[in-house]
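User: I'm putting together a small comparison set for a docking exercise, and I want a reference complex before I start. The sequence is below, and the ligand is flavin-adenine dinucleotide. Could you produce the 3D structure with the ligand included, as structure tokens?
Assistant: Of course. I'll restate your input first, then give the structure tokens for the complex.
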Amino acid sequence: MSTAGTGRPNRQAWREIDRVDPAKRPASERVADFHEIYSLLDEANVREQASRCLQCPQPSCQEGCPLANRIPEWLALAAEGRFLEAAEISRTTSNMPEICPRVCPQERLCEGACVLVGHAEPICIGAIEKFINEYALAHSEYPISCAVPNGGRVAVVGAGPGGLACADELSKLGYAVSVFESQLLSGGLLMFGIPAFKLEKAVVERRVNILKKQGVEFKMGVTVGTDISLAGLLSDHQAVFLGIGALKPKALDVPGAELKGVYQGLPFLAQKNAPISLGLAPLAVQGKRVVVLGGGDSAMDCLRTAVRCGAADTVCVYRRDLANMPGSRKEYANALEEGARFMFLTNPLALEGNAAGEVTAVRCVRMELGEPDASGRRKPRAVPGSEVTLPADLILIAYGFDPVPFPPTSDLSRIAVNEWGGTKTDGNQMTNVPGVFAGGDVVRGPSLVVHAVLDGRKAAAGIHRYLCGQASAPIAAPAPPG
Ligand SMILES: Cc1cc2nc3c(=O)[nH]c(=O)nc-3n(C[C@H](O)[C@H](O)[C@H](O)COP(=O)(O)OP(=O)(O)OC[C@H]3O[C@@H](n4cnc5c(N)ncnc54)[C@H](O)[C@@H]3O)c2cc1C
Ligand code: SF4
């Protein structure tokens, strides 16, 4: 930590030291591959950047982090070069401390809440969290928690971040945990949705391997509700966690949506990013004019993936303005640098096609923003007589997702859902079916990795309380955190 020669931490370091962000590969280089675009900060920069922290007694960054990460504590250790101890503290509140900093929209979370905002650039919390955890993974025998078995058995359905975090917490408490996953690879949207240029797939595989070493069992290619019933799971396990995400894409509801060349964004991303063949029909974008509909993270990812696949032109059509766009500003800037174009305040009215039934253009109308709606965002309305036609060879729909409805023939349909299909849970993440818990996107709707991790942790604690309360044979006390 900077001591300004006094031996005491220098609380003015933030005035003297500018924020430094990790180096980003030039756009011309990175569009030629799918590797991550940011490098790690070096040790000297990590120490200096961490020393900018004021060590607030009531840290607002910690309040801004959904996991309440103990940020000032690990920043103080990082400033002293004690990276392994810093990483150890960061692991106490996060099951994916090397993954969240790669994908969190820090400007809306920890860094956006930093007390320096408005006075200076906030501390680069995400970059330091990523560094200390990569350092720990590279420089030490990574601690694998091998808790004494407590006699309990829990099934986790879905190997996305919510399921993995829940499995991790429960196995550290001594439960025998089996993860049931319908795909052949673990990670959920970490593997099939978020592109490798934001999160390389080896990083996800490394985290899954840590859980395997810890004793978590993975049953791949098993769809709960089809291959095995909820009752079947409950007969073998004392509790179940559902972390099955919200993977039903919202449809495009305009004339022409059925034309050839109109695709949902998620299968496109999965096909271009997954490290295994998914058996999907190949979707070629080379030399094509690609129009992406939507303004969230998925839209940014579709644009940047299409650029990397050689699209001739890549345009995002979004009905609100930049200020009201849900996608992360960092990813918007990256997409712009990589050559994507944006048409804000524009909405599709219809898709036009040729005699072969292939899409050739998007007919759009310009929009203006009216009064705020229930969510507080200003409602877009069409400007009469402002139609424009945008030539297109391929359309990617990125309008977001809903939870997949439980099959009516499956006993999963006993689980209560709300009006938009989200699974209802109580404060412990338990559903209306005793012993069945849920979290992540299946409860919240499309959200963030860090929120899924939070729900998985809360559910694990809820499951432990529930089983301790009802166990006829006592569940053993938790082992110390690993
Ligand atoms: C394109 C895209 C980009 C994104 N980018 C970001 C980002 O940059 N930052 C960020 O924080 N968030 C991002 N998100 C959101 C984030 O990925 C999700 O919020 C998060 O993955 C939700 O985690 P989850 O565990 O609830 O579900 P998921 O990650 O969806 O995992 C659910 C798992 O359950 C499995 N499953 C489903 N049904 C069954 C069943 N019946 N039986 C067995 N298994 C089943 C699925 O195969 C899947 O593996 C992005 C999302 C998308 C789509
Ligand atoms: S988990 Fe996300 S919000 Fe929390 S400190 Fe890390 S980067 Fe910030």
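Confidence is low (pLDDT under 50) at residues 478-482. Residues 81 and 336 are 36 Å apart (CA to CA).
User: Thanks, that's exactly what I needed.
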